[in-house]
Write a structure and sequence with these properties.
two-stranded antiparallel sheet, 2 helices, 2 strands, about 15% helix, about 5% strand
Length: about 100
């Protein structure tokens, strides 16, 4: 694998839920030059089946599959609604950090 190939390797930063993260307000989006519709979890979904679970669950992003507040239902059809970008990782990694779980960004 070529470590410089952004399509083959996507690195995610270490994320610590105990670190305080600034809140992203409505005016911050404009200041940062970021459109909430361009954040990956605005349109992407991930289907997971957690260890020991009896059912699947849809989540908006790779960074929050264990936070039950971000469960969007059991099927992709259930998960078509809007996602509140209020997880600490939304601000830290995606909005302020400019990160993406996809190499297509």
């Amino acid at each position: 694998m070529d470590a410089r190939d952004r399509a083959a390797l996507v690195l995610l930063p270490e994320m610590d839920e105990t670190v305080d993260v600034p809140e992203i307000t409505a005016s911050c989006w404009g200041i940062l030059g970021v459109d909430p519709d361009d954040v990956m979890c605005a349109t992407s979904r991930m289907v997971v089946k957690r260890k020991g679970a009896t059912r699947r669950s849809c989540c908006p992003a790779r960074s929050c599959p264990y936070d039950t507040c971000f469960e969007l239902g059991e099927t992709l059809a259930d998960a078509v609604g809007e996602v509140a970008l209020n997880h600490p990782y939304c601000a830290k990694f995606c909005v302020l950090g400019g990160g993406s779980c996809s190499a297509a960004r």
